[in-house]
Amino acid sequence: MEEKHAAAKQQMEDLRIAAVARYYTDVELEFLRKHAPKHLPKIASDIDLLADFTFKFCPEFKERHPKDDIFELLCFGELIRTFFPKDADAKIQEFIQTKELPRIEDMKFGNDTDLAQQRRQQALNVLEGLRKPQPGNVDPAAFYDAAERRNFRKQFIATAEDPAADRCVINDPEIKEPVEATIIGRHPHRRKWLICAIPTNNSKYGKLERFPTIDGDQHRDILENYSLRGSDRTIPVGSLLDLRGISMEEFELNGVILLPWGNDIRISGLGLSNSRNREFKMFSKTVLCQKWGRSGLAMLHAHLQKCGSTIPAGKNKNELELQPKSWYGP
Question: Which entry of 5, 119, 126, 184 is 20 to 30 Å from 105 by CA?
């Protein structure tokens, strides 16, 4: 009896899914299955919520706006139900019934405007990534744009009086030639040292970056210019507390910082532990290994290898590289 009930319930759910699927492309369905619980929890965290939203709003949206992206409806519905839950459905109906859809990126959500726009962009990045034709088994790191991801959060950090003061020319540590660099900030443990971003040394991963550091005592003109006219910011330090409840797949590694320390090289990850956090922080190798064991070290080593940086030898000179899980997609 229980088996028949379970089978009937599964059949009903399959029919419900099939009915919902009529309104979305295969890629949009993949996005809704895999990513909606994170990016659209108010309207699509489970099939019942998604079905209710779809049947209530999608038919009219498709009829009135056949050339517009269904994502705009999904995103607007999610944001309205999140930030303005009172009369949310009436507002969604008004949105659908406009002759020309308003631009969500121009909308205001009170004190939550920045957060709302971040959430929209994050969800859109994921969907657009799925929409791009990609050959099988492609490493998502090949599409990760390190500079763009930092620039997306620039509104939350110090800005330069003269943007040119945030740039300099340094010696490329791998090819030993001058290279133009962007100064990300001062190292939090050695504030006279500047963390720089230079282009990848591996064409397969064309938008990753290398993060060497330069000694301000040896580059006084660069340090003085950055201090007086540039952003002059110190990278904040991340701790185990920042990583609480965060899996490695959810940790966004923007780059790996290399800092000379005596006869050793200290490595750290510039990362974002949660989409709500407003800026990238520096997570030491020790913290990442305390959180994820040797996989934390492997994540750093893999990134260094992908962007063409030299992997510093450990104290025992034989630390092996592993195949880690890591976040590289938007």
Answer: 184
